[in-house]
From TrEMBL:
It comes from the Eukaryota. Pfam families: AIRS_C (PF02769). One of its GO terms (molecular function) is phosphoribosylamine-glycine ligase activity. One of its GO terms (cellular component) is cytosol. Residues 8-74 form the PurM-like C-terminal domain. Pathway: Purine metabolism; IMP biosynthesis via de novo pathway; 5-amino-1-(5-phospho-D-ribosyl)imidazole from N(2)-formyl-N(1)-(5-phospho-D-ribosyl)glycinamide: step 2/2. PANTHER family: TRIFUNCTIONAL PURINE BIOSYNTHETIC PROTEIN ADENOSINE-3, TRIFUNCTIONAL PURINE BIOSYNTHETIC PROTEIN ADENOSINE-3-RELATED. InterPro entries: PurM-like_C_dom, PurM-like_C_sf, PurM_cligase. Keywords: ATP-binding, Ligase, Nucleotide-binding. One of its GO terms (biological process) is adenine biosynthetic process. It is an enzyme of class 6 (ligase). This is phosphoribosylformylglycinamidine cyclo-ligase.
Amino acid sequence: MDAAAWPVPKVLSWLKLEGQIEHEEFAKTFNTGLGTVMVAGQEHVTETTEELRKAGETVYKVGSVVEGKGGGCVLKHLDAWDQTWWPFRIYMYRHPGFLPTMGRWLLFPGTL
């Protein structure tokens, strides 16, 4: 999977930055903004993508399935997660009242 292929939600970027969470731990602990991952044969990618978009879904091609030697999913370009925090940091500085309101958010298990 290519970690640069989808946007990480701002709140997760903030948590990673402020919590100084390493890439591997971040990937294990949070879904990093991916709600569902679908796998389709190459011959069905275009049709599947079109149908999902018609249904109002946002679609990102995040990787491919290749023959491996075991060990599970391989994540590439993890440094992209370090690039996602800066727009959020700028937003926080320009809107100083933003961070205190984050303390009133209700985050439920499984929503991140």
